[in-house]
Amino acid sequence: MPQQAQKADMTQKLALITGASRGLGAALAEALAPTHHIVAVARTTGALEELDDRIKAKGGSATLAPMDITVPEAMATLCRGIHDRWGQLDLWLHTAIHAAPLSPAPFVAPKDWEKSVAVNATATSVLIPYVAPLLGQTGRAVFFDDPRGGEKFFGAYGATKTAQMALARSWQAESVKTGPRVEILQPQPMPTALRARFFPGEDREALTPVQDEAARLLPLILILNDD
């Protein structure tokens, strides 16, 4: 497992964030850093290193995992590394998502559909069985909803994001008595790169800054992780 960070304090809680290099994932990584060692997963090494610098500047620590969540072998290596190094996870935040270009349903490009399925749906189905044993009975998994299913021009994104959330909700219902606890939060609209692909002419000043939204969500996440 990558060790591009200072060693975690073994008394700290451990948070895995998939999709941590930018947007809400990066903001939540920074917000959680004072109380959690962050395992930050994303494809972009440079963005992860910048995140690591910001976390260290706040006195936190992170382990960087520049990996592609659509590669099952990489995710198996990641989770095995977490098990071997720490034994368990306290928290998993799944923020990784692919925003396919907006398109009428008859014109969705096969490559855009395939990537949307791979990132938004299939990767989630691979990660859940890998991460669940690390969370055990007391850990928490948090997913972030964006209900676009059925909206015009959102076919590829809406369908695959809906599939992701349906899988998360099934896991949530199935684990009520056994754990881990699975929660679904719905962020407010933020000026992220993902949203800019959907609404390029939007007034971004009217949106909630990512850091502010992370601050709003953080108490909910910490309550979920501590109760």
UniProtKB/TrEMBL annotation:
The answer to whether UniProt assigns keyword Iron-sulfur to this entry is no
What Pfam families does this protein map onto? adh_short
**Coiled-coil ranges per the record?**
none
Q: Which InterPro entries is this protein grouped with?
A: NAD(P)-bd_dom_sf, SDR_fam
Entry keyword annotation includes ATP-binding: no
One annotated GO molecular function: oxidoreductase activity
What keywords are assigned to this protein?
Answer: Oxidoreductase
One GO cellular component this record assigns the protein to is:
membrane
Q: What family does the entry list?
A: Belongs to the short-chain dehydrogenases/reductases (SDR) family.
Against PANTHER family, the record matches this protein to: DEHYDROGENASE/REDUCTASE SDR FAMILY MEMBER 7B (PTHR44196), SHORT CHAIN DEHYDROGENASE (PTHR44196:SF4)
What name goes with this protein?
Answer: Oxidoreductase
Which species is this UniProt entry from? Phaeobacter gallaeciensis
